[in-house]
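Model: Ready when you are.
Researcher: Fold this.
Model:
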Amino acid sequence: MATGLTVPEAPPSADAEAQPGAPRRRRLRHPVATILSAIALILLFAIVWIGVRGYLAQRALTEAVPAAEAVNTAIRYQDFAGAGIAARTLRQKTGEAARLTSDPIWRTAEAVPWLGPNLAAVRTAAAASDTVASRVVEPLVAAGSATDLRAFAIKNGRVDLAPIRAAQPAVATARTAYASARASVASIGTGALIGPVASGIERLRGVLDRAAPDIDALGNAVQLLPAMLGADGPRDYLLVAQNPAELRSTGGLIGAVTLLHVDNGAISMARQSAGTSIGPWESSVADVPLNTQGLYGPLVGRYLQDVNLTPDFPLAAATASRMWTTTYGGTIDGVIAIDPVVVSGLLDATGPVTLPGGDQISSANAVKLLLSDVYQRYTDPDQQDAFFASAAGAVFDRISAGGANGRKLLSALASAGDSRRVLIWSAHPGDQRVLSGTTLTGGLPVSDGSSASIGVYYNDAGGSKMDYYLGTSVSAGSAVCRADGKPSSVVSVTLTNRAAADAGATLPRYVTGGGVFGVTPGHIKTRVAVYGPSGGLLASTQSDGANYPTVAGVDSSRPVSLFTVELAPGESKIVTVQFLSAKRASSRLSVVTTPTLPGDGSTPVVGTTKPVAPLAVSCSSVVK
């Protein structure tokens, strides 16, 4: 019977739901769970994406290493076609690494704590590597391909300046790009990075830092050479030969001077003069600072042979220039200093040269011939000067005639500059600004926030040529031992007389000095000047655990310890000097020294310098 009422159906039983063919109800998932699942999938994808791309980027950078080595090798052997192929491979690999580490997913992940700084560091390093490959190496290789290094040699007395000028834009652009890449890597903080990433960044930073001087040297050379070689008008330079057998702070006593005239790449010898024929004067011919005179005496401004008692080569060169113009008139545009070790390097580029007297001078015998044999053969200083002049003239003639391998010539000069055996001062302020900060300028040591700079310089004090037998070594270290964070720097100087026991009786009087300055023949008397960090203080000078006699002074805000050592044949002396820096700074040290000879009669290789050994500094031993 109909009642008009609707009776609801009972819900299906569980058994009914389980029956085949029975209708199933759709279950709705919670929206939060759906979102979390999606995020998990995205994160998993991102992790895999970043991991795969990171692996591929690492592989690309690894494969770039042999390409970089191939570029270096090809350039060394002037194979610019091979260098171009290797440079393109290098750019391809570094570009791939840069692209793999710079997509939006990678950049977004850089915001993730802990992981982010590592990803950002890898991206920055890859981008810097790509910058070096694409904007430094490849353009420089292209410029080199158009310029045979042999074109930089003198041919028929002239250097072709056109290739140098043509390379200027590419070199300037590459130098700027390199500085940018280096700065970006230097800005990466490694404190929050995992070990492998941090060590990789430090290795890249070291590579860029080591190559920076070469890039700067190339930039400076290409910028300076045209003007210095007379592209903008004739110039006159003094070429001074320093004799390390009688040491002066910048390398040796000035024994011979040559006036070089340059005009649009043409180079000629205008005049030669013995150093002894210039001066002396009753009073200083130049403005020598009082502090310099206080340390080295008034002779710096009166005798050409003593202008470089000071290690400040710009001051010494300007004084020598004034002495020349006072004697001969004219205008001097700059001063270039070299020594017989440089001559040996030049002879490696020219091959042996026969002198007017029949002697043959070569890279193997130049140092011994010019610094020892000549004194055995000639006792008259005028004959010695004539021999030096003939040797200089013969080597110059060979080079100016085009008889030198351009690559070897440039390599010898660059290596000599690195070892401070070639020094250059320019009377033109613009040129001098470019030279400043390079090893070529020979300025006083410069300290900065990253390191304290120390200088160790030697001057002969016996009026002899006995420094041919002087052995020198330097060790240095630094430590922070004070509560104010100011580091203490310690420098240990070792001098050894390596002459034979009977040197006083068997060597010529001109070599031993003959006792004229109160030094026993055969002995070596050396005045040593140790320069501390700018603004610092001289704390002590000691030898054998006791205070050692010293003159304490200041030169251009640098503390100086000036002491004298006299050694009989076979004797050695160690003197240790300690400085306190004026402000908190890194405990890292850089040390420059006078370039000397081995002391045992062997020929030093041009470009090599005596290493400064690390010195462990104990806070218990320093003056606080």
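Researcher: Now this one.
Model:
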Amino acid sequence: MARKAVGFGEDDLRSLAGARSFERALGYLDAVSGLEVGDRSVTATVHGTDVYEVELTLGGNSRSETSGWCSCPYGQEGNFCKHCVAVGLTVLRQAEAVPRQRKAARARASGLETWLKALSRDELLALVREQIGEDRGLRRRLELRAAAARSDEGAVRDRVLALIDPRPFARYGCIEYAEAPGYARQVEEAAGALRALASGGFGVRAVDLAEEAIRALGDAYGEIDDSDGVVGSAVVAVAEAHLAACRVARPDPERLAEWLVGQVLGDGNDAVDLDPLDYAEVLGPAGLARMRQLAAEARLRNPRGWAERYLMERLVKAEGDVDALVALYAKDLDPSGATHLRIADALESAGRAEEALAWAERGLRDSASEAHVDGRLVEHVCDRYARAGRLTDVVAVRRGRFRVERSLVGYQALRAAARAADCWEAEREAALVALRDDACQERGAGHRGPVLIDALLDDGDLDAVWGEADGRADGRQWRQLADLSRETRPSDALAVYLRMIEPLKEPTGDRVYERVARLLLDMRDCHRALGTEAEFTSYLQGLRLELRRRRKLMDVLDRHGL
């Protein structure tokens, strides 16, 4: 009933906060005061180490619609803290009164609206003056709106630059995580002022000021902990205001192209990811031509530069010239075959499937000796071969990759392809020969357990694993082999568990004790299968006697019924 009334329950609060914060919140129920319930939110004050303001949004029928904000340090990091839980629990304890409180909140809001409408102009002005005298943030927002409304360019510039100035938020030389949302709100205010300036007939000035703001934000962004991306989103709003101003002002297209290229290639582009093609309509043919020229020159200066390549790629794609795009990609082919795949995708999208496959095949040839090949390229070629019924060619590709990069994943891919082509028996024999050669070379060299053991385990060929494991398998592989063999070869599995438990007698800690308990449970299963449970009981008694001083271990064994 309580959950239906408020949109969440105790389980939702525990899930949002975590068990520890939930339990700690129980000690703060008497510290909640000033509770106000509205249609979609609850506000309250919680007295803890300091006095904290809390706001909960009330969900519908799912926990994802419920969230909380608190002014405490932990809450400012984006966490649903114990203070939020305390307020939520207080609301649940008053759930029967929530409908009445909501009705009262609506009545208060309606009453305020009626009262405001009844005030004279002078009375409203006096009220606003009173509020801006007490609230500096409100005063700044209204000053900015006023300057934009009267198109006071100088005042708007001063206000915008003041809003994006990071220094008031950078107490220790940078804007920390907790301060980022407040700074982001000011940047969004600056974006609104720029939009108002442009719509007020001052588009050219808005363009210049937006570019100045974007440059300043780019300089500051590296010193901001923007883990949640709130500042980045606000900077995007400034960039959108710049685009809107350009649509109004129609600046010189070549000069705009130069500025955009500078943004994409410059060091300050981390703040905002501008897409020059958003400006295509403003740039027109002359601006786009100038941008293409600048992009080509930049590409010549730095052929391997990521930003240079991105800019040229965007322009060529926009022109729709597939051959030009292929030529661009072909100038810098990645050894992994990733670029060959991009060419294949472009050609296939253009309906040129044969050329696409030829490029993908070339990618496999060019990267045949590489230890790492883009897996997407291999999958692309195998998929196209399989669609065409070329199953033996799929096997050939998988075999070629397995020869270069011998791994369990490569073995599994070869097995799937060979089974589809009905030739797995021969392929498996050849693959295992290669893996045995690798295992012989790796013996004693400090390697992890060989792929040979993993492959045989994956095949379910346990008898073969027992024949190969001695001197080759690592601890993980021995454990897996023993676990898989408990029913069919309990004596062999028991010997493995006994070997594994010996080195665990020396170390301490909860994780070690849990491993000991699991091994003992597995040993007990083996003894049961062998009908030698008395031997296990004797072994366990001896182990407990030997390690009796480790009380935590004894507790763990007791908990597992050992």
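Researcher: Key takeaway?
Model: DSSP finds 29 helices and four strands in the chain.
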